[in-house]
Amino acid sequence: MATSVTPHLMFEGDAEEAMNFYTSLFDSAGIIQLERYSAGEQGRQGAVKRAQFSLCGQLFDCIDSPVKHNFGFTPSVSLFVECDNADEQQKLFDTLSEEGKILMPLDYYGFSPRFGWVEDRFGLSWQLNLAGESF
């Protein structure tokens, strides 16, 4: 029987940079564990072999894949963030979309009076909604 389900993020060389970026965005966040590849292992020495971090109580695993892939993240799977207020939402929207792209600008969409969707510079997709406003 399964004991947990944890989102697993696979990067190709920038896992630590992404993890540091994500944990800097939230007050309740931190890096829990970080293991690096050593000389002679399959991955590039010093790259993230396995790491775990937390954002607002949600655990994430991440790695730097030692194998190159013909795929990356897709907006079909995204992180949904309930923001406490419009200022927090705007800050996250601006920071996450910097060097990334805006998929849906912050606006009224019928299902929420203020919602936005961005893809960050690492290719990870984020939906940003005001708390208390639901679909």
List the helices and strands and how they pair.
Layout: E1 8-11, H1 15-25, E2 29-36, E3 48-55, E4 58-64, E5 78-83, H2 86-97, E6 101-107, E7 115-119, E8 125-130
Parallel strand pairs: 1-4, 5-8
Antiparallel strand pairs: 2-3, 3-4, 6-7, 7-8
Please report the distance between the alpha carbons of the first and last residues.
Answer: 32 Å
Query: What percent strand?
Result: 35-45%
- The value of Rg in angstroms is 16 Å
- Please give the share of residues in helix: 10-25%
CATH fold-level label of the largest domain: Signal recognition particle alu RNA binding heterodimer, srp9/1
CATH class identity of the largest domain = Alpha Beta
Please give the count of helices: 2
The structural domain count equals: 2
What general form does the structure show? elongated
Question: What do these coordinates show?
Answer:
It is elongated and about 55 Å long. It has two helices and eight strands; from the N terminus they run E-H-E-E-E-E-H-E-E-E. Helix content is 17%, strand content 38%. The chain has helices at 15-25, 86-97; strands at 8-11, 29-36, 48-55, 58-64, 78-83, 101-107, 115-119, 125-130. It folds into two domains: 8-64, 2-Layer Sandwich (Signal recognition particle alu RNA binding heterodimer, srp9/1); 78-130, 2-Layer Sandwich (Signal recognition particle alu RNA binding heterodimer, srp9/1), CATH 3.30.720.110. It is of the alpha/beta class and 135 residues long.
